Amino acid sequence: MELRRAPGRGPDVDAVTVSGTTRLYAVLGDPVAQVRAPALLNPLFARLGRDAVLVPVEVRPAQLPEVLRGLIAVRNLDGLLVTVPHKNACRELADSVTEAAALSGSVNAMRRVPGGGWQGANFDGEGFVRGLRAAGHEPRGATVCLAGAGGAGSAIAVALLQAGAHVSVWDADASRAAALRDRLAPHFPGRIVASAGHVDADLAVNATPMGLLPDDPLPFDPTALRAGTLVSDIIMKPRNTALLRTAGEAGLAIHYGEPMLAQQITLYREFFGLG
Questions:
Q1: What pLDDT digit, counting tens, does each position of 60-104 carry?
Q2: Superfamily holding 2-122
Q3: Cα distances (angstroms) measured from residue 142 to each of 149, 165, 203, 232, 257
Q4: Residues with active-site annotation
Q5: Where are the domains of the chain?
Q6: Does this model's pTM top 0.90?
Q7: Which segments of the chain are extended strands (E)?
Q8: Helix (H, G, I), strand (E, B) or coil at 270
Q9: Under CATH, domain 125-260 is a member of which superfamily?
Q10: What is the pLDDT averaged over residues 44-53?
């Protein structure tokens, strides 16, 4: 595979040349219009001299088991990335999972295992914490209000707790937040609670899909947060979500979603054996 300039598309647009020897990777989601992984991973393949390409694949939840069974039979497909809303379902469909994925109950990457089948891992949480630290925000000892107990939210909760934070998790489905608390409390006693909404915190995080669509409501009201709270949104497209715009207008510091994915590149390289 080579990465070349696409004629007539401007100086900053790259096109990927695919041949019969190209190895395939897919990012599974519903929808997939917002995914940023191809824009980060395909240039990485080129830099590494890898004849490989990552493509978005839109899969309805009802068809996910069938699609995973079919993809394992595609002999030149080496791995999968997983996004909304499939992270929890892929945890259940994986043949084995890493410790972080088992704790979070979700996966965002899958690779083939010897003898067939998929091994699932989740790097959302570690990527999020690395992104915070790279921006100068240390989570150790911080109080965090986390909106969303789904796939990404669960992984972020695990990583924040492992980093020494105290986490209050909220979800529109209160039973899901309670289930996450019950699953993690034995591992991190006294440092995770389920709440009915956001409370005073050092860091407030949106790990829900609210904000993907222009008409989505805010996951929480940042103007109700105390001065000095850092507001983070893991949504990557749009980059400046309504939540972050509102928080910025209220004078709060903000943290964008893309660093979470950018920090996962090294983790993906190790997991997929890309060198």
A1: 999 999 999 999 999 999 999 999 999 999 999 999 999 999 999
A2: Leucine Dehydrogenase, chain A, domain 1 (3.40.50.10860)
A3: 19, 5, 7, 14, 19
A4: 87
A5: 2-122, 125-260
A6: no
A7: 2-5, 14-17, 23-29, 52-58, 77-82, 96-97, 109-112, 118-121, 143-147, 166-170, 192-194, 203-206, 230-233, 253-255
A8: helix
A9: NAD(P)-binding Rossmann-like Domain (3.40.50.720)
A10: 95
